[in-house]
Amino acid sequence: MFLLFLQVAIKRVKIDKASVVELKRLLREISVLKCCRGAPHVVQLLDIVAADSLETFDEIFMVFGTYKWSTMLCRALIAFSLRCVSQLHSL
Hints:
By secondary structure, this protein is of the alpha+beta class. The protein has a single domain, classed as Phosphorylase Kinase, domain 1, CATH 3.30.200.20. The chain has 2 helices and 3 strands. A 3-stranded antiparallel β-sheet has the order 1-3-2. It starts with a strand and ends with a helix. The relative contact order is 0.23.
């Protein structure tokens, strides 16, 4: 069985005392990460979690994730690639 493992990192951002410039940077970071979604060498922004009510809305959590290939899957892909190359050379 071949599995992909998801590694997750969480970034906590306090926004209750953030300046306008810091909030603009945060919005820019989020928009750039959304534009880069699916790129192979960029950490993926999976979710943004905030408080349920405006009274407790003082921080947000940005959830990032990357996929890590299992060793068994890498070996199978390499073996498959070698068989394909061998087949092509035998033609």
